[in-house]
Amino acid sequence: MRQRLLPLLAVALVSTTLTACGSKEANPTHAETEAVYVSVGPENGPYLKYQVQVSRQLNPGDFENLSARGDQEKVDPEDSEYLRGIPSSQLELAKSPRNPIDDEIYFGVFIQVANDNKQPLKSAALSGFEIEDSLFVEGSSTAEEHVFKPIAAFDPKNPGNPFLYRQATVPGAVGTGSGYQPLPNSPAGSSTTAAELLVFKIPQSKLENRPLVLKIKGPTGGEAEIDLDV
After folding, report:
1. What is the number of other CB atoms lying within 10 angstroms of the CB of residue 109?
2. Residue 118 β-bridge partners
3. Taking a C-beta distance cutoff of 8 angstroms, is the pair 213, 225 a contact?
4. Residue 19 located in a structural domain
């Protein structure tokens, strides 16, 4: 009897595997974690794929005044470089003297875009991104308190800082290789994250309203979202 059961179990396992593979969404628009690609584009394509490589708080210190950086243990020299090219008016963080937990912090989302199509495609504009915390309710009187937009450089299309995200034409695929933004041989593409940076200002207390969800809108239609690993 045991010898007959083994082949039956093998068939069952293969059947289960095929069913699971067949149920995978071809162009997913929601990722429950980072490092998973989501597809953004018109209903019938073509699509670009977006992937969050990592998201985290940025700790640049007072990068315009090195002697006033304060607690050096809380300053990341790499993060100091990421914010160059953004106007000081946009970099100003709101403070809450009565409740410091509501002070704004810089929050970075490192994102990569892949193009599996033969033709080049334009990626989302900076205005096509936003973060919503779990208390966001569209149309409510408090909605604006729970949605956050990325801050922009002096010229969002050409920020001057090679690590900041900009809308770009993503090269088409060549052979079996996808086209990427950032380009692999660029400063951002050859960095440890192989991604470009979206910078947000978020009250520290809002980081507790999980999940924080990155929403992406394509320039020619389509939307997707990624749950951030905060």
Report:
1. 24
2. none
3. yes
4. no
Give counts: helices (H), strands (E), the chain. Answer: 3, 12
Residue 90 belongs to what domain range?
Answer: 26-227
134-193 per-position pLDDT tens digit: 999 999 999 999 999 999 988 878 888 999 999 999 999 999 899 999 999 999 999 999
If one counts the domains in the chain, the total is 1
DSSP tag of 170: E
pTM, entire model: 0.84
Side chain identity at residue 98, one-letter code: R
Beta strand 30-31 with 223-227: parallel, antiparallel or unpaired? parallel
In a domain, 17, yes or no: no
The SS3 of residue 80 is helix
Query: Quick check: 115 and 178 in contact, CB under 8 A?
Result: yes
Which residues, 6+ apart, have CB-to-CB distance to 3 below 8 Å?
none
Q: How far apart are CA 9 and CA 14, in angstroms?
A: 9
Query: Which H or E run includes 11?
Result: helix 2-22
**Residue 76 is part of a domain; what is its CATH number?**
2.60.40.1240
Residues in contact with 228: Cβ distance below 8 Å, sequence separation at least 6, in sequence order: 34, 52, 55, 109, 131, 211, 212, 213, 214
